[in-house]
Amino acid sequence: TVLVVDFGAQYAQLIARRVRECNVFSEIVPSTMPAAEMLAKRPKAIILSGGPASVYEKGAPIAPDGLFDLEVPMLGICYGHQVMAQALGGTVENSDVAEYGGASVAVADPGMLFEGLPGEQAVWMSHRDFVSRAPAGFTVTASTEVTPVAGMENRERGFFGVQFHPEVLHTEHGMEILRRFLYEGAGCRPSWTMVNIADESIEAVRERVGSKRAICALSGGVDSAVAAALVQRAIGDRLTCVFVDHGLLRKGEPEQVEKDFVAATGVNLHVVDARERFLAALDGVTDPEQKRKIIGREFIRVFEEAAREIVGGAEGEPVEFLVQGTLYPDVVESGGGTGAANIKSHHNVGGLPEDLRFELVEPLRTLFKDEVRRLGEQLGLPAEIVWRQPFPGPGLGIRIIGAVTRERLAVLRDADAIAREELTRAGLDRDIWQFPVVLLADVRSVGVQGDGRTYGHPVVLRPVTSEDAMTADWARLPYDVLQRISTRITNEVREINRVAVDITSKPPGTIEWE
Ligand code: XMP
């Protein structure tokens, strides 16, 4: 493994995934982790990330004691570069001139990192502090007009530092530099592939669950589907999937889970029709957080009841494991403990009751979403499931602004199906991260349709592009696609007489309206 030590970087996740793109497994650890604990993970290399602090500020995160004595090859990036320089006796200074954005580095001495690369390279910088003097034993490999030590290395000790960000796209040769560090500098081999991951995870689940039984809540989304397919490969019939139809799904989704998924995997599926129960629980509720809490709570209750039934039904053999499609970003975010503000209560995290009687199996907890998709393909899941856009656990419940009713759900489901159909027809599915359609159920506007006055509801189209849903931009859908969607929705969905497009990025908006 390659450890990415997080100094509060914007880019720690990105560094980890770039390393994986080099077919080397990587994980993020906090900068507060003691060096011995890092060593216990037997890293082949350690990457020190960037961060917002100044190394000489009071309270700035520093390298753990003894880190540089571990005899593990290291690459410092930006703040990590400065931490390395300072810890080993170099000098870090504050400059009046910041360097944000594109810059050009001149390679002074290719050393190992820049070997075979051009003498001038476009790089991405984001700093004010800089290393003014490299530590003894280091060669300065690159510099820019404002940054004398933009690259340095001590080849004998396997220490490398760069002031710029090799992980971002705008750094022309960033991936080559990373690869050179991993393969040449640290001797990593590019052996981490999807085939290995699938085989290894299946084996790991088999070992862990043994001859016991497991249960999994299928949402219809990619994550739970891939997790379930993987566990099913490992333990076959001893896995039972529970699909709670809460009535807040989109058109065709319950069928997709009940037919396509079962056809592809042959999994044991237990469907619970809880539509009435959720409607009753949501009756008259308009507050978004309230809705989320109710949906989360009901979901867990229904799931628990189903689990009890399954346990009772199967020759008294108890279910001991609960499969969840937790992904790496979820793990990192919840473990971060940075006191991030609670923007929305997500119904699939932290919702399980205290007296949870299951042990968790989370076969995807080291993977990113795109890796999960590739794994899903590897496991033979259909493209409609693998490439499905993310859909929130609380479903259409948080896309109806106002109280949720059966009628409103039907209206939104129809409008949403049209938008999705047209997006697919335009061949844009994979360009658009997500395409919520939101029903403003308590708003009415006047329209004219078929020579008559109408007083209907608007829907809002919310197509966004994103890498990870943490930030997003509104998608510039072609006008003709928007126009087709608008015409069809107003023609085909009786209650809708107006279609609006949301052109807010995240931040300040969130992707969902509630
Ligand atoms: P927001 O609206 O916060 O959403 O920008 C970010 C991403 O998370 C999805 N989302 C959820 N997913 N349970 C989920 O599984 C939830 O409760 C939930 N709420 C929002 C949202 O669709 C987007 O992809």
UniProtKB/TrEMBL annotation:
CDD domains found in the cross-reference section: GATase1_GMP_Synthase, GMP_synthase_C
Keyword Nucleotide-binding included in the entry's annotation: yes
Keyword ATP-binding appears in the UniProt entry: yes
Keywords assigned: ATP-binding, Glutamine amidotransferase, GMP biosynthesis, Ligase, Nucleotide-binding, Purine biosynthesis
Annotated residues for binding of ATP: 219-225
Entry function: Catalyzes the synthesis of GMP from XMP.
Underlying gene: guaA
Source organism per UniProt: Actinomadura yumaensis
Domain GMPS ATP-PPase: from-to ranges: 192-388
Enzyme Commission identifier(s): 6.3.5.2
Catalytic reaction annotation: XMP + L-glutamine + ATP + H2O = GMP + L-glutamate + AMP + diphosphate + 2 H(+)
PROSITE patterns: GATASE_TYPE_1, GMPS_ATP_PPASE
Subunit and partners: Homodimer.
HAMAP family in alphabetical order: GMP_synthase
Pathway assignment: Purine metabolism; GMP biosynthesis; GMP from XMP (L-Gln route): step 1/1
Pfam family, one: GMP_synt_C
Any GO MF annotation of the entry: GMP synthase (glutamine-hydrolyzing) activity
Active site, per annotation: 78, 165, 167
Name of the protein in question: GMP synthase [glutamine-hydrolyzing]
